[in-house]
## 1
Amino acid sequence: MTPAIEVARLTRRFKTFAAVDNISFEVNAGEVFGFLGPNGAGKTTTVRMLCTLIRPNSGTARVAGYDVARQQNDVRRSIGIIFQDASLDDRLTARENLRFHAMIYKVPRTEVNERISRALEWMELADRARDLVRNFSGGMKRRLEIARGLLHAPRVLFLDEPTLGLDPQTRSRIWERLLALRQEHGMTLFLTTHYMDEAENCYRIAIIDHGRIIALDTPAKLKAQVQGDLVRLETVDDAAAEAEVKQRYGVEVVRDATGIHFEVENGAAFVPGLLRELPVAVRTVSVRPPTLEDVFLKMTGREIRDDEASNHEKLKGRLKRMGRAWR
Amino acid sequence: MIDLACIRMVWERDVIRYFREKSQLYGSLTRPVLWLFVLGMGLRGSAGQIGDVNYTQFIFPGIIAMTAIFTSIQSAISIIWDREFGFLKEILVAPVPRTSIVIGKGLAGTTLSLIQGCIIILLAPLVHVRIALANIVPLIIVLALLSFGLTGIGIVIAARMTSFQGFGTIMNFIIMPMWFLSGALFPAKNLPIWLNVLVRLNPLTYGVDLVRKLVLGFSYHSPVFDFVFLVGFGVLTTAAAVFFFNRGEY
Ligand SMILES: Nc1ncnc2c1ncn2[C@@H]1O[C@H](COP(=O)(O)OP(=O)(O)OP(=O)(O)O)[C@@H](O)[C@H]1O
Ligand SMILES: [Mg+2]
């Protein structure tokens, strides 16, 4: 079986800055594959290339067996996408948005109404079908986007941070449904995310940073790279604590705004001794088993942050509101 | 190249939005009414007769054309909003040819422009203009042709412009001058050479001229030439629209 996605030495520059830098990977048909990375890592840029919205500067990519630069229409016929940011027409109703989607994706006429009703019901939007999307809450809009992306039953579905801003129950319900669809139709899922629990749904994960893939494996194997438990210490003088821990225990230490972090074999047994021996006063201490976040922290020395929108995003949001008022 | 479902979708969406957004309808009717009655009546005394008609009657065809011009360009430029608010991505990742999107947009602009144009045509009795019944259908065809060509310009502008900051600029530096230089507001006779050249180079001149022929019964150029020119203009701008729309990245 041909892989659902084949990417070889793909690069995309904006001016001279490489947003995606020579990445290669393959996604098997029917797989759930994840891109995990911090803001600006190049996740959306990769998705946009794979969806034929922008052209690569170099390298090749095939989706469903078709070249994204040369067989754009075949690629477009094979995919569905849930964009990271809004792509609904908010002057239309929910049902109209779905109906127009069905129209351009040539969903058979006899099936359209039923599929739309089912999609709306599944996303718990059935009673709002006739309302204008501009009156929807953020979460409702997001759910409508997801319903729309699935409407034409694509072979390969791209999800760019699909559940951003949704509550945990909704997220898990969406995931149930996505995984069921994968089972039924053999659909391939390619997702990007900041959410660790969402990444755990993937068979394989690529960790991407500064446009490069720095690790690619199953979640379990990635976590195995972090040996033992993670200890985080917050002290009155983190710099001194860092030097002290390094020297005394010979472990690698990462220091950031939240304190110092390091791995030890058995955290719970290690901490009491540490507290006795460390000359720097400790404010807080925590110990936990490794997560994918730690893998990232270990590989890059930085944390994946998902709480704060970048300044660029904020500015864009403000401009949009201005435009809306002006329109 | 021709995907009827896509053309229909792009067209229907714009039409739905147009009827839903009443303020756009009223707003775009105020401008021509202001021009016609305030400017027209205001200058009527000092401008005197132009041929057999008074000044208000003289600019009436120009006001019909203006309505078509502004409506169709504005409609095509809405692509900028679609890009800014994200909906354009939804259409562009769909398996539909770009040409069909351009055609759908062109037909939508034409439809809206005809609706607005017809409303202005209904004002004819108020300025004592009698349009021959036999001229109504040709007039609509000419307005449709003009509008379709102009949506092409609108799409090129939208494809070249990366944000809406330039929107007002475009209106002020391209559309307004084109309209002023179309001979809609003054007879294209005895003009200084530089003005004459600009008027003659302006594609709108021939559209306005043909509308004038059908509404008032006289024109400054041969109607056949006007018509051929309009068709050529439509073909050219549509080709340009397809080219630039295809080339852009989104
Ligand atoms: N059209 C563009 N012009 C210039 N730079 C761009 C453009 N699009 C993206 N970039 C830059 O490319 C880099 C990668 O952006 P991308 O949107 O792919 O990040 P991401 O991994 O999706 O981040 P996030 O988690 O915030 O969505 C960023 O530094 C961004 O500023
Ligand atoms: Mg992104």
## 2
Amino acid sequence: MAKKIKFKIDGKVIKAEEGRNLVTVAEENGIFIPSLCYYEHIDPPLGSCRVCTCNIDGHAGPACMEKVRDGMEVEVAKPELEDVRKSLVEMMFAEGNHFCPSCEKSGDCDLQHMGYEMGITNTRFPHLFKDRLIDFNPKRMVIEHNRCVKCRRCVEEVLTKDGKQVFSFCSRGNETVVGIDYDMEAQLTEDEAVEAMNLCPTGAILVRGKSIARPFGDRKFDYESVQKPKAEAKPKKNGKPAKLEKKTIATISLAGCFGCHMSLLDIDLGLLDIIELVDFNKSPLTDIKEFTKTCDIGLIEGGCCNTENIEVLREFRKKCKVLVAIGECSIWGGLPAMRNMVPLEECLEEAYLDSMTTETGESIVPYHEDLPKILDKVYPCNEIVKIDHFIPGCPPTATHMWKQVQNILWGDQFSILYSEFKYD
Amino acid sequence: MKSKKSDNHLDRTALLDQLWMYQNQYGCIRDQDVEECSQKLGISKIELEGVISFYHFFHRERTGHHTIYLNNSIVSETKGFQRVKEAFERETGQRFGEQDPSGEFALFETPCIGLSDQEPAALINFYPFTNLNSLKVRRIITDLRKGVHPKAICDEVPDHVNYTPPKDKTIFFREYHPGVAVSKLVDITPEQLIEEVKRSKLGGRGGAFFPTGMKWEFCRKEKENPKYIVCNADEGEPGTFKDRVLMSEMPGLMLEGMITAAYAVGAQEGIVYLRAEYTWLLEKINNVIEHFRRMNLLGKNICGIENFDFDIRVQLGAGAYVCGEETALLNSLEGKRGEPRTKLYFPTQRGYLNKPTIVNNVETFCAAARIIELGTDFYLQTGTPDSPGTKLLSISGDCFKPGIYEIEWGTSVAKVLELCEAEDPFFIQVSGPSGECISMSEKNRKISKDDLKCGGSFMVFHSDRDIIHILTNFAEFFKHESCGICTPCRAGNYIIKRKLVKLSTGLAYKRDIAEIAEWGKIMKMTSRCGLGKLATNSLLLAIDKFPKYFKKKLDKKGEGLNKNFDEEKAVMAYEKFRS
Ligand SMILES: Cc1cc2nc3c(=O)[nH]c(=O)nc-3n(C[C@H](O)[C@H](O)[C@H](O)COP(=O)(O)O)c2cc1C
Ligand code: SF4
Ligand code: SF4
Ligand code: SF4
Ligand code: FES
């Protein structure tokens, strides 16, 4: 029986058996240390993602690599550390190509979940849009390299009966990919393959015919945060303020699908309350085409895929005091950015010249001085102008958007619930 | 020693040698080789592919009858890399990084090959060719086409030991007589030996300055057996070539240091991990090992000391800077991907094959041997109280006398610049890209443990060199050499590189500089090993130390509109469809 010891996390004394893993002990004591590659059964831990970085006896280091010792002092909740951990998750989003709305794992994905828990709305890093393959060769599995975060779980854990690795890291540096051995994969049983799919914290390992996609609401990370709800997690109404100043609002859909706008309308009758509080200026909702005055807030749906988008966005920046990017497309490109991994020429040739329905020699790529020019890639709005706030989701829920808008316009009144904060 | 147990079983520790055999014989590692080798090892093919693809000198696609690796480090760049590269392409009719269907020539770029004092330099079938220029390239290629063996026309690499202190203060480059150091072991116990090394305050010369005596003591105290002595001759830090010169001038001294360490901790096997870039030194080292065996400096009951059995072999690396990191090196020795280990144990506790292991740098071993040979008191006379002895600097870049300088610890930067006849020095990179850069306002700083630490690399750049260009070269190096295991280094180096490109186009805001600084700190704080931790060091320091330069690079205003968004460039791809 291991010795009982005492140590401190953020000043709180914790009793535990000596030598147990810090992340697990913290969790049992209601303290959330973000982690991704850490998987209780893998010992020694992998220590690859660094998302669990904490201060251990004064030095920054990965918490998952620590066994608890008597007298150890751990800092978790320091703002500086929180920011660093957040940045690492952001780095993963920027490094891979994560199109959550079209991902089988969405809602059950650990990476996404970490994003939710940390409240990541956008990444501080530019998305790299590195062209990656999807490996359809294995008999049973599909490897979606765009989503792999190189946590190494599959390399260590997925073995054949005679102990051979099915996965291995290949190449190095930012070229590192998880390679799969087709022969070994064929030796896995169906159950083992499904286990591998579940082991993967992201949607990188898929098994044909074994969809993991579940309906909204039924998925692992849909409703409950693993963190203790903070005191103000319920919408707090400090009584209705006597009279709110009326504000003007403008909205636009750039390279988006109008989904965010549809979602804006989703508050149904709530819209009637909103109308009391705001005037719509330029917006597809009102069909007002030109700004007639400076607006208090501009909501931008969609990123920039052509020169007209750029022009409009710049005008919004000039005419709105506050700009809010709503939805994934506007925040970092979203689904339209799926083309960012492929050169524009190839996209256009595929669409206009070589598609199945075009006749050879009969088609051209449209180009006219009246047409906006198409950009080499889809740009997130904040690469073109300064964006003040980001509301994630594809589309964001109506309540999330309106709560946030009201917070911005009249000061914090509402908290965004965990269940309202989504990337899909 | 370690090799095939039987025909159909291969020991994993012999894997790198086996892969080299395929690579040398077939110009690549073929599918059937992967098949055969993985079976012999009893591992899956993908695991083997993982190892092969980690090292950049191993190829899965056929290289050439003549495989040329041209150094693209910053010093090479300043000495005419671009022209030499073009000359190679012109003369061979091949392009870098592309496959030659005829299989005659294959051209690749490679990071620093340890010949910074004679750049631009290249390896052709791993034979050194230095001080290249267009004319020389033409001659070389003509000869090779005629069927001349590269060995016959490669360059005799000069050592350029340009400076040593007065004779009574020189430690390394004084006369060397094989066996003198080891013969002193007869009179002292391992404990006394460790005491002496501790008293000498010898600190690791691989860059981290860890007290060598303490390391040996830790290892001695471990109960596990056997124990191993590993010499880190991976010398990958761009601009460093002191280990090359030590191994070229007096490989015996290094071996004696290893034998000394073996005596101290009770080890029986020693391994020199030699970077593949120094393959041309392999024969020389092996000959000395053979000679040592004959002299009973290696083998059984060394020098008549009862039960003191120790032998040494050389393991060639295969091209990966990160394998210089000691735990990555151990993985590499074990025939694995050269990824640094998690820091749960020190190598002295669980090193090679999980047994207690000493890893020291070439220079550290040489210094230890000299301390035993000359006596600690002699050693302590030189240098400063905290850093006694001398230090080898590999000086390169914009100076008239690049080469090796054995300086006393405590020598000032100004003095070093004077010795090497630096021309208009402006930006000095100390300890390589992962070290620190200094400006001339720091010329009075002293090279020592507690002022300006120096691992060996000392690159001088004059005022016409573009700092961003230098830093971008470093960033590319780290991006290329990151092992890819941890997020901050794998993704971070890539992101930083992009940011630097932005900076170089003059399209950056003040905010971009602030972001570089902030992101660099994150990498420093969270990376697993020194590579990621130190990768942005110089960048952060340069921003602090050369404010005027960076200010010039910036766009002044920033009012919410990113005016620098290059719309013209963004629509260039589309303009092609204008008919
Ligand atoms: C990325 C990286 C590369 C390194 N490369 C080398 C190297 O090429 N040669 C070396 O001696 N030490 C290198 N080191 C330092 C070693 O990890 C280790 O500290 C050293 O071999 C210990 O020997 P010493 O105590 O004699 O210096 C490197 C460290 C890192 C983090
Ligand atoms: S659900 Fe997870 S794996 Fe899928 S795209 Fe989103 S973050 Fe990536
Ligand atoms: S495939 Fe999944 S389990 Fe494997 S390394 Fe990538 S993210 Fe981790
Ligand atoms: S810091 Fe870089 S080189 Fe070191 S372990 Fe991490 S990825 Fe590998
Ligand atoms: S969870 Fe600790 S490093 Fe990944």
